[in-house]
């Protein structure tokens, strides 16, 4: 699920380096360290 959310968020940005994972997590009400790690890992896998 997080994979698709991060992918959609990156597609909506002109520059993927502008991705702010804290705003993303706040928007989707993701609060745990596990969520943070998953978001960061998905971002890095999609950007690279």
From TrEMBL:
Name of protein: Phage protein
Taxonomic source organism: Streptococcus pneumoniae
């Amino acid at each position: 699920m997080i994979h698709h959310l991060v992918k959609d968020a990156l597609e909506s940005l002109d520059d993927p380096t502008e991705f702010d994972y804290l705003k993303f997590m706040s928007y989707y009400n993701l609060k745990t360290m596990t969520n943070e790690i998953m978001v960061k890992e998905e971002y890095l896998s999609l950007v690279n």
